[in-house]
Design a protein that fits this description.
By secondary structure, the chain is α/β, with parallel strands linked by helices. It is about 35% helix and about 15% strand. It has a single domain (about 10-350), classed as NADP-dependent oxidoreductase domain (TIM Barrel), CATH 3.20.20.100. It has an eight-stranded parallel β-sheet. Helix 1 runs parallel beside helix 11 and helix 2 packs across helix 3 (about 105-120).
Length: about 375
């Protein structure tokens, strides 16, 4: 591996270190959503090779990405590497076919799905297995006990959760403590300059419990790249935003809609500020947006996607060698205010003079 050009953080409250930019593999291989910017296996290999050359050691995928396609691409690349150098994460929860028990976070489905993921990834273990979404049908005790058993038998090293709300995450933490199980080390959650709601609840739990945050969609599906213009509709074949704009019925669930930002003056003001800051630091708009996330105290690693080597190299330029000033961090925070609804408005309005650094160090 070439000399590292990235920085490393601990993976939550664990002893494992990961690069502060994680390579998301959702764009590798075929997609069930017919997205035009998917990368072939050849291009995917080129992207992962460059990521590793720059010092990246953390790859995130999921069994449901391309219904196994992404894991197969990562596995075909991984089998030719020194497995000890890389931290591999995948997920379980969503259906892979129409079988009645082929969904959820039951012991049966989790173990069955992991075995299939390990086969596709061509590795005897994954470093991080994550629940992809809360499962109302399965008792959380069953899910957590299964995670613990998988850690104990060596099929996974750690586990994390994704896409949960505050009370769910706190319940997970409390059940783990009560049952004496292996700890949850990460929370993978959408987090970016246009989605800051997790700061109110989920990230407070993470700060208190030593859980590392892995932001997904750090550039809001392309909305924060600065490449779009107010008066020009995004290209349907050249970007995920453009595809979603013209194919809303087939869009990825939860994906951004261009109409939500096209006429939003606060969005364009944010983009102008990102562009100005980029000019000051000699960095691109995406690099500034990614750096804002990297410098957040709760973040372990930011999950970036790439559909070209050039795009990857630009994003990786956010990792090390420079920092946003405190003033610029505050400016971006102020440009993207979090909705201050009840009860947060009441709770936090009375906390301004009650800050104790020994009780909570987080600064959002």
């Amino acid at each position: 591996m070439a000399e590292s050009k990235v920085e490393y953080n601990y993976l939550g409250k664990s002893g494992v270190q990961v690069s502060n930019l994680c390579l998301g593999a959702m764009t590798f291989g075929e997609s069930q959503f017919e997205i035009p910017t998917q990368a072939s296996e050849k291009l995917s290999f080129e992207i992962i090779d460059k990521y590793a050359e720059l010092g990246g050691n953390f790859i995130d995928t999921a069994n449901v990405y391309g219904i196994g396609s992404s894991e197969r691409v990562v596995g075909n690349w991984l089998k030719k590497q020194d497995r000890r150098k890389f931290i591999i994460a995948t997920k379980v929860r969503f259906p892979m076919d129409t079988g009645v028990n082929r969904i959820g976070l039951s012991r049966r489905h989790m173990i069955e799905s992991l075995d299939e993921s390990l086969e596709r990834l061509q590795t005897p273990f994954v470093d991080l297995l994550q629940s992809h979404l809360w499962d109302n049908a399965t008792p959380i005790e069953e899910t957590l006990r299964t995670f613990d058993d998988l850690v104990r038998c060596g099929k996974i090293r750690y586990f994390g959760v994704s896409n949960v709300c505050g009370w769910q995450l706190q319940k997970i933490v409390d059940k783990i403590e009560m049952m004496g199980l292996s700890r949850c080390v990460t929370l993978q959650q959408e987090y970016n300059l246009l989605c800051r709601q997790p700061e109110w609840e989920e990230f407070m739990v993470c700060e208190n419990e030593g859980i590392g945050v892995l932001p997904w969609s750090p550039l809001k599906g392309g909305i924060l790249t600065g490449k779009f213009r107010h008066d020009v509709s995004p290209d349907a074949k050249g970007s995920r935003i453009g595809y979603t704009h013209t194919n809303e019925s087939r869009a990825i669930p939860g994906s951004s809609a261009w109409r939500d930002y096209r006429d939003d003056n606060s969005y364009w003001k944010l983009i102008d500020s990102l562009r100005t800051m980029g000019g000051k630091y000699g960095k691109s708009v995406p690099q500034v947006a990614l750096r804002w996330l990297i410098q957040k105290p709760v973040v372990s690693s930011v999950i970036i996607g790439a559909t070209s080597v050039k795009q990857l190299e630009d994003n990786m330029g956010a990792s090390s060698g420079w920092s946003l000033s405190d003033e610029d961090m505050s400016s971006l925070n102020e440009l993207t205010p979090r909705p201050l609804n009840y009860p947060y408005k009441m709770i936090w309005s009375f906390q301004k003079d009650r800050l104790n650094k020994f009780n909570r160090s987080i600064v959002l």
